[in-house]
Each structure stands twice: as structure tokens, then as C-alpha cells.
Design a protein that fits this description.
- The chain is about 35% helix and about 35% strand.
- It is an alpha+beta fold.
- It has a 5-stranded antiparallel β-sheet with strand order 4-3-2-1-5.
- A hairpin with a 2-residue loop joins strand 3 and strand 4.
- The chain is elongated and about 45 Å long.
Length: about 80
């Protein structure tokens, strides 16, 4: 992990932005492959994790039922429960 940190410290801001975009795409692909309609999931936010149920899968986001309401959530914020 230290080696990765050293490598990232040597990158320019534009290169770090490209790395960040690639990481978001990878997170989205992994989330899409593990999530199914009707399955339980966890919505990950900065300070909390909220359980929910997937109602619908769209192209880049999912409709998740949690806390008595339905929310449209990006795949990068979802984890399978």
C-alpha cells in the first residue's frame, strides 16, 4: 500500500483525475455485476451506511427502497448486503 501511495504522490493533478475516473468506473462495473432487482444492498455515504432493497436497475443508477422511500442511487455508492 505504501508503494501505491508513493506512486500516486508522483502524479500530476490531471493524471490523478484520470485515476479517479477509472476507479469510479471500476466500482460501477463491480456493483452492476453483484446487484440484482429485489436484492438487499447497503447505500454507502460519507458518514453512514443505510440498508435498502433494489427496486430497479437503470443504466448508471439504481432505484433503492430505504427508510420508507425510494431513492435513485449511483452504483458507485451501492454494496451488496
Amino acid at each position: 500500500m505504501q508503494n501505491l501511495t508513493d506512486t500516486l504522490m508522483g502524479l500530476t493533478i490531471s493524471e490523478l483525475t484520470q485515476v479517479q475516473e477509472t476507479i469510479m468506473q471500476i466500482k460501477t462495473m463491480k456493483a452492476k455485476s453483484t446487484l440484482t432487482v429485489g436484492g438487499n444492498c447497503v447505500v454507502v455515504q460519507k458518514t453512514k451506511r443505510t440498508p435498502g432493497v433494489i427496486e430497479k436497475l437503470n443504466q448508471t443508477r439504481a432505484v433503492v427502497s430505504m427508510l420508507g422511500r425510494k431513492y435513485t442511487v449511483p452504483f458507485s455508492m451501492l454494496e451488496a448486503a
